[in-house]
Hints:
Strand content of chain B: 35-45%
Oligomer: heterodimer
CATH superfamily of the largest domain in chain A: Mog1/PsbP, alpha/beta/alpha sandwich
Helix content of chain A: 10-25%
Largest sheet of chain B: 10 strands, antiparallel
Radius of gyration of chain B: 30 Å
CATH class of the largest domain in chain A: Alpha Beta
Shape of chain B: extended
Number of helices of chain A: 9
Order of helices and strands of chain A: HEEHEEEEHHEEEEHEEEEEEHHEEEEHHE
Number of strands of chain B: 19
Radius of gyration of chain A: 28 Å
Number of domains of chain A: 2
Largest interface: A-B, 75 and 88 residues
Order of helices and strands of chain B: HHEEHHEEEEEEEEEEEEEEEEEHH
Amino acid sequence: MRFLPPVGSTPLLLLVLLVACAPEHRDVQLGAPGTRTGPTMPLGASTKDRFGLRQRQPSAARSPSAQFEYDLPDGWSEAPASDMRQVNLTGPGITSWVTQLGPGAGGVLDNVNRWRTQMGLAAVGDDDLEELAHATLLGQDALSLDLIAPDRSKRLVGRMLFAADRSVFVRITGTADDVEAQLPAFEGFVGSLADAEAGATRGGGLAWSVPDEWQPLGDDQFRTAHYQVAPGVRIWSSVLGGDGGGEINNIRRWVGQYGQSMLRPEEIDALETIEMLGTSGKFVDLTHEDEVTRGMFGVMCPLGDKTVFVKMDGPSAAVRAHEAAFRQFCAELRLD
Amino acid sequence: MVKAIFSKLGGVLGSLWLSVALLALLTLMTWLGTRAQEHMGLFMAQKKYFESWLYVERLAGIVPFPLPGGMTLMSVLFVNLLIGGLVKVRWKWQKAGILITHIGIVLLLGAGFVKGMMATEGYLQLFEGERSSVYRSHHDWEIVLEEAVDDGVRQWIVPDGEFLDRYDGRTARVSAEGLPFKFTIHDFLLNSTPMTAPPFAASPFPAVDGAYLKPLELELEHERNVAGCRITVDHGDGRAPTEGLLWGFERAPMTVDAADGRRFGITLRKKELPMPFTVKLDEFTHEYYPNTMIPKVYMSDVTVIDEDGPAKHKIRMNEPLRQDDMIVFQSSWGPTNARPGERLYSGFSVVENPADQWPWYSMWVIAAGMLLHFGLMLLRFIDRESVARSRGADPLVAAARKGVEA
């Protein structure tokens, strides 16, 4: 570990000048202790708790999809969702899931042959695609496949939707007999499948709704749901893994960016919390008392395996004028 | 011979030329120090230029050039004034005004010296209903060990002078009377932040319990720096040493279970400074100008409790509490986004300055000296005028005539 005084920072400085004289090792002998009254120190906390670093949780605890709505067939159960299984279900002897990807998603032929290969079937050519059956998925025309392994050990029934804005795959797999037994339930599930809250926008694992007057500014590596709220006022969210650097560190960074006085731990503890994403997050108001100095609202919401941040930035008065909209945006933000 | 040397030295130290040179150097230092604040911050600039004996400037950014710092200049100016303005001046009643004025300036310089050497500054934050008889330094740190005992809390304090230079492999081994273990301070960082250590890779800095302290560049506003260090506790009973991290913003102390069953907390915090009285915040009031967020009034109603009993005070912006060499200013409040009825806290800047009132006294001394001096000059002028008139010649008229003829 190295000490890093910037060049010219003299006081340390004087200490640095004394480095040549400073012994490698020093013995410090303290005298008898003093005494005080009042509360005792809270003992027993772990290092991470002492520093406000949250424990990294396994991601398996992710809640079922908020992206789709469906009727869960009798006897089936919901398993934790994942990036590639936005709906993940299990039933007697079978598994069934829904995957939503971007438009194209590898092409129709490659996806069909991927499923066929998984069933031990030979690949087909472009000409064969025309012979595939069609069915409805999410209210749109989709390819329908029913693939049985040559030895009848397994069967895959599914649908593929290739729309202009996305590709959706729904399938059930299991032994041929189990799939056969659960086919009516699967058809019922597919028929009930619908987009949750049509009209919401999605990205970066989040879904949100914004007023019509907010102008999208385009997401990037660090910003999701990036909008111009009003002239000079922007809002965006970010999702970072783990604790995202920790509550105190992020607040310190924000305070430095916006030229405010450093908040002490007790002041951070006293910050208002707001409800969002099924939990609560610290609400930080770093607007200035004058109108034009740049200020911000910020919320950080730790979710165990990741932390969601929402920030609104702009001239202080303009940011304050949109406080209600900021709070509503946070309240309506969902995991996708 | 010796007398001649002292006479010569006194002549130089009390000379007007030295006064001019000192004022020129003070002007240069002020200009350089003000410019430096932009890139090194107020605290560092004060330390380097105004509170140092010597500082080094780099000519053209390269060649080091030593210059006398504020302490040197003010000390020499003090001596210069003392010799030139008090010792060398002929002590006669006609010069009484000048002498008194110089005494006032010397007192003013003395006030600055005493403040520079002895004053402490810090902050105090109280929620309504809370009280405190201590405040915290803005800049100084201390490591505190505490043990709960039947009649209170036993406390050992390591001042930061013992560990500020403990980096780059340097260590300080601390032992204390009544402490059943010794501990070693390593890797002190003046500005740091805790990070979660990567689970499957080597940590870039020594990690303890899955966390490490990452060094940060110093902040321009020095009070924003948050120090940290690593410590190793040697129990002395054959057990492996206990490692821990201390960080200035930690929410709870490191816990040490000693070999004899006693339990200790160790924490790194801003230095705690005592006040000669207790301040209790009764109520905090703030008002904005209508339809703006511009503050109109910040005010704290406090009760100051000392050996004479409780006394009510109001602390407002620009109206601090002054008592027992302590000055308590209203400086901040929060939470700034508090809802109606929410409990508020008030932030105070606290300064302990034994010479707090000296500038006030020196101002009166200087004013009295100048009044006396100019009064005497006026009297002399009136006297000369009356003498001239009694001789039939008006000196002013004579001077005017002389100018016209020229």
